[in-house]
Design the sequence.
């Protein structure tokens, strides 16, 4: 049904700019966002799954786009939840950069 997923070493070979700890930092950040906004675990797991699938299918993702990929996957998966939408818009789109 689905193609076999790439292993961690295969993903590392496809993305030489990404350090192996960057994915774990992204997953930790996604977990904090999900905890902060009381999102379901399913939303977190789906976002991480889609990040892994994306990384296994693409090549040479720059490291400054990794958080964007995670955010977009989480934002897409939040559409499956029945929660007020306004607080997520405030977090993702109106957050000031440091």
Sequence:
């Amino acid at each position: 049904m689905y193609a076999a997923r790439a292993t961690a070493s295969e993903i590392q070979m496809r993305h030489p700019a990404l350090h192996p700890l960057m994915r774990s930092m992204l997953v930790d950040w996604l977990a904090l966002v999900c905890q902060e906004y009381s999102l379901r675990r399913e939303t977190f797991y789906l976002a991480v799954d889609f990040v892994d699938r994306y990384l296994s299918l693409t090549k040479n993702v720059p490291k400054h786009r990794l958080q964007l990929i995670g955010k977009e996957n989480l934002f897409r998966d939040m559409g499956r939840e029945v929660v007020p939408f306004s607080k997520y818009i405030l977090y993702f789109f109106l957050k000031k950069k440091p």
